[in-house]
Every structure is written in C-alpha cells, then in structure tokens.
Amino acid sequence: MKYNMNIQKDDNGEYLVTFPDVPEAATTVDSLTDLQTQAVDALISAFDFYIEDKKPIPVPQNIGTDFVTLPAALAAKVYLYNEWLASNLKKTDIANKIGIAPSNLDRLFNLRYR
Question: What is the Rg, in whole angstroms, of the alpha carbon atoms belonging to the chain?
Fold first, then answer.
C-alpha cells in the first residue's frame, strides 16, 4: 500500500510532508533519511482519527514519484478495518464467529500493535 507524498523544503532546511489522499496527515523531517519512518507515523496518527470517528480509512489513489510504502501488516489492518466497517457487524459478533476473545480482535484494529 503506497501513499503519495508532497515534499516541500522550507527556509529552515526542514521538509514538510503532506499526503493528498489523507489530508489530515502531515509531518516535518530534518533530513530525507528520516522520511519513511516519520511519514508512516504521520499516517498512523491520521488513521487513528478515522478509526475513532468510525470512518473508512482512505486508500491510496494514483501513485506518483514520491510515495511512502506502508508495512504489509499495517496495510492489512487498514484493509481489514475498512472491510469490517463496511460489514456493519459488531466486533463481538466477529470474535464469536471465529472463536476468539474480543480483546484479541481489538488488537487487529490497533494500528500500533504488532
């Protein structure tokens, strides 16, 4: 899962990074070597707001030349969350159907839990 980034260098030598598909996400980095880690963290923070508001997490659209790649486990959680939200099922119903404790299912929706 790859999200486009807009990278702008400011007068202080820092880079402002924004994401067209997730306008709530933004971060600044001192050097481009920190870009991947900071970009993923900014996206996770924005995704947390979508989850808190029970809104679908935007999926990336057309990929340009500057993009960040989400780790596979995180991308899977985003897709799983969106599918669950579209299903209109309760988390407890899903947990019961697959025979696990609801707390184990909650970990699947926690984007910071590995």
Answer: 16
**Cβ atoms of residues 102 and 92 within 8 Å:** yes
Enter the tokens of residue 63.
Answer: 């990929």
Asked if the structure places residue 114 within a domain, the reply is no
Dist. CA 25–CA 12, nearest whole Å: 21
The CATH number covering residue 89 comes to 3.30.160.250
- φ, ψ (nearest 5 deg) of residue 7: -120, 120
One digit per residue, the tens of pLDDT, for the chain of length 114 reads 999 999 999 888 899 999 999 999 999 999 888 899 999 999 999 999 999 999 999 999 878 889 999 999 999 999 999 999 999 888 888 888 889 888 888 888 889 887
Chain centroid offset of residue 11 CA: 29
